[in-house]
Amino acid sequence: MARQSARWRPSELLLPTPAGLYCPPADIHIDPVRPVSGALITHGHSDHARAGHGAVLATRETLAIMALRYGEGFAGSQQVALPGEAIRIGEVDFTFVPAGHVLGSAQIAVESRGLRIVASGDYKRERDPTCAGFEPVPCDIFITEATFGLPVFRHPPAAGEVAKLLESVRLFPERTHIVGAYSLGKAQRVMALIREAGYERPVYIHGAVEKITAFYQAEGIPLGEIRLVSESDRKTLGGEIVICPPSATQDLWARRFPDPVTVFASGWMRIRARARQKGVELPLVISDHADWDDLLATIREVQAGEIWVTHGEADALVHWCGTAGLKAKPLHLVGYGDEGEAESEGGAVDAPAA
Ligand SMILES: [Zn+2]
Ligand SMILES: [Zn+2]
Known about the structure:
Distance between the termini: 66 Å
Radius of gyration: 21 Å
Number of helices: 9
Number of strands: 19
Oligomer: single chain
Strand order of the largest sheet: 7-8-9-10-11-18-19
Helix content: 10-25%
Order of helices and strands: HEEEEEHEEEEEEHEHEHEEEHEHEHEH
Strand content: 15-25%
Bound molecules: zinc ion
Mean pLDDT: 93
């Protein structure tokens, strides 16, 4: 009979490295920011899912999104992770569990010799009609982001924010409402939410949002009638809703509509100065990340004794954990952050297509 192996010290199972979180016994990285031989990818945003790895393991949707953004040859080989099904590599079990962030997004539970660490990637707790909801996994160590890890960040219900948009469209029937929203996830969530609110007119989109939107539709997510701005006469789009990447709202592109109203859907819109600085007339606080309350609720729910914070407002969250009697530390991982910024750096991938 095999001798029972000694329990891992946490850093023997998973540790931060310059390339990202690394699991030595399986020789694999999670969301690596540099090319590596083996990668587990939590979701398709460009700061987590990069091209050029050897073998990639991710959900079917994430693999499809990576292929759309980088081309079919984005990795040496691909393997689909089914939600909830453990995949053993060496003596480590990896399980992908829905994270509620964007279509296909997953947390990754890493388990070996009785130690379970959950790397949650990016996540949110608010209901999202475009993706499977976050499922809390009890664990010994919970690794969390802290994008909105300050008490000032409290996201109101998204339905109320979308109601503000529709009210403005009703009040200004001759103006085009140009909504800046990240091209993967946020744009489609806004479309789905305005449909749930009963809006039935066609929604117009920028070319940079087209491929991912078509993928969401092919996955059966009802987004209603979508039309390309490039195939429409802009002068006739007064009173219509146009969805584009955030950067496009500040381009010349956005000025060619009738008396445009600049809208931006982002958790950052909680900060008025940020909205003003970006010239946003109608800020909508709609985020795909957990707000302060949901970060704390999630940490309590997973009942981990130890919390590792990857990126964002790590200090405030680590401090709170201390007051709650939890061991916590920042991992200081670099290369992750606001998808909007990452997207504009992405160059060709999401380049505005007129
Ligand atoms: Zn993300
Ligand atoms: Zn991220």
